[in-house]
């Protein structure tokens, strides 16, 4: 089998848990005007179509900022902003209505494609839009009358749910209606965030120009808690700041995960939703990756993790029954439900010594010092149990432990019970560390 085919099979198999997890869930996807003007739009629409085919309930919320600017410029009008919010007068509102109507028709037509040999052949997607969003005037702030700029008053949750239940993709825009028949222009991120919170959506997905949020050194940040995101937002400006603020608001409102992905990267939506590493930045209320005590449900994951090392002779073989008996001794690193690291501790309380055993990190996840994190967790546990020393038996990784404060020793340094169990055939090196 060729390398490309193997990669495809691997991706498809790894995506299957996500296919099951996402089926029947509600996602709100934000498409700003910049995304709708991107050369990658057709691929984005194809990926949205695929989500629909997999049974994901979708609400699309689209903006029109650059398209509004184009229409204002064509009329010789200038944009007016106050505190980064557009002031929408009557002439500007006409440009907003023109841009939004044009984009809505364009999105609906693209979601209706069904050409043979195209990714959307046979999709039969149904799209519906309507007066699902009730708006109110933003009013006068700091002496500035925002005129036809509005804010969310109400999301018609029941009507949207009915359409989702019927298999429709619901299409919303940055325009809202008032009970008096007026139209108001709103920020697309505000509409999307309120909709996700109101629907109790599992995900809010925000398309942006950048692939991910970056730290002060320019390194990509793949995951943030709402608290961490609140700190990171201080160094951001413009589009990135606005989108990350929406992600934080959504999570505080009860949305499990808000994800920022690039509209320029082909397949960013699929990579973010169907791979563990994702493609952008996720703000998550839950603990997406954590070190925790192992449970009986983790036995299969641990076996899968350690089996290759057992076959290479790096670890001694452990049966499922043995693992089940000793599962309470293990700590694991769980990444979105997958066990990517483990370590075990055996206590010899009579001699105030503990053994570190079966320290393994999945080959694909050995960055970010995950081995050190597991070691620290075991050391802390040993100290809390009153142990004075921590020892490890290893055949091929002695240098890694020496670099972390372990010193090579002899069998005499082992607890008596462990000394009697020592396998002379393996000739494991004994390394000890004072706690």
UniProtKB/TrEMBL annotation:
Give the span(s) annotated as Disordered: 410-435
CDD domains registered for this protein in UniProt: AAK_NAGS-ABP (cd04237), NAT_SF (cd04301)
Give the UniProt keywords, A-Z: Acyltransferase, Amino-acid biosynthesis, Arginine biosynthesis, Cytoplasm, Transferase
For this record, the Gene Ontology CC terms, alphabetical, are: cytoplasm
- Gene Ontology process terms (BP): L-arginine biosynthetic process
Q: Which reaction does it catalyse?
A: L-glutamate + acetyl-CoA = N-acetyl-L-glutamate + CoA + H(+)
All copies of the N-acetyltransferase domain together span 289-435
**In terms of domain of life, where is this protein from?**
Bacteria
What's a single GO MF annotation on this record?
L-glutamate N-acetyltransferase activity
Tell me where it resides: Cytoplasm
What EC number(s) are associated with this protein in UniProt?
2.3.1.1
Enzyme class name? transferase
InterPro entries (alphabetical): AceGlu_kinase-like_sf, Acyl_CoA_acyltransferase, Asp/Glu/Uridylate_kinase, GNAT_dom, NAGS_kin, NH2A_AcTrfase
Pathway entry = Amino-acid biosynthesis; L-arginine biosynthesis; N(2)-acetyl-L-ornithine from L-glutamate: step 1/4
The cross-references to HAMAP family, in alphabetical order and at most eight, read:
N_acetyl_glu_synth
Additional free-text comment from the UniProt record: In bacteria which possess the bifunctional enzyme ornithine acetyltransferase/N-acetylglutamate synthase (ArgJ), ArgA fulfills an anaplerotic role.
Per its UniProt record, what PANTHER family does this chain match? Answer: AMINO-ACID ACETYLTRANSFERASE, AMINO-ACID ACETYLTRANSFERASE NAGS1, CHLOROPLASTIC-RELATED
Concerning its family, UniProt says: Belongs to the acetyltransferase family. ArgA subfamily.
Q: What protein name is recorded for this chain?
A: Amino-acid acetyltransferase
Q: Which organism is it from?
A: Endozoicomonas numazuensis
